[in-house]
Amino acid sequence: MTSxxxxxxxxxxxxxxxxxxxxxxxxxxxxxxxxxxxVAGRGAVGAAWVLYENDSVLHYNELLRAVLVRDGHRPRxxxxxxxxxxxxxxxxxxxxxxxxxxxxxxxxxxTAGLRAGAATEKDVLATAAFEPGRRIPGRWPLxxxxxxxxxxxxxxxxxxxxxxxxxARAHWIAQESSPLGELSRRRPLLSLALNDFAIRFGDAxxxxxxxxxxxxxx
Length: 218
Prior knowledge:
5% of the residues lie in helices and 61% in strands. It is mostly beta strands.
């Protein structure tokens, strides 16, 4: 049995993010009831390494891929692939929000920028190197909703964040056998380092259910 906190989760740490424009035929499957946002036959895909630390409700590492989608006319973010090194995060992500988290082992080096790798028992998922550049003044807020499939229905969840932002240069490597194999086929359009972020993930629930839940990981 694995326990995890009820939503919303308050998280803090560092994120290293790259964005691509990908041909529609190469986009991963998104949540039922949503469609990728496309321009000239391409969709927006992001991949990120996230290090949850400091005042986070859980401390763990994460590698994810997400697609910009629309729910009707409303823009959403759909997380299509995601790995973590915390059983509690995996169970909570699946049960609360329909986020398809899997477990992986991470190798993180923050000596200069970021050097990161993640692997499962079957695959080396990806490696990446980020070299942070110029800091953009201020702390930047961002609010959006994540759209996932939960119990056969569309589930949207709010995300509110604030962070400092740096431009970055990034180099990604993923084998063709990896679920993230297409990341090596083209250079990122844009890469950023979101430092010392604070995130509120999820929506408030009624007081009677605000207790830790326990589940058996799938």
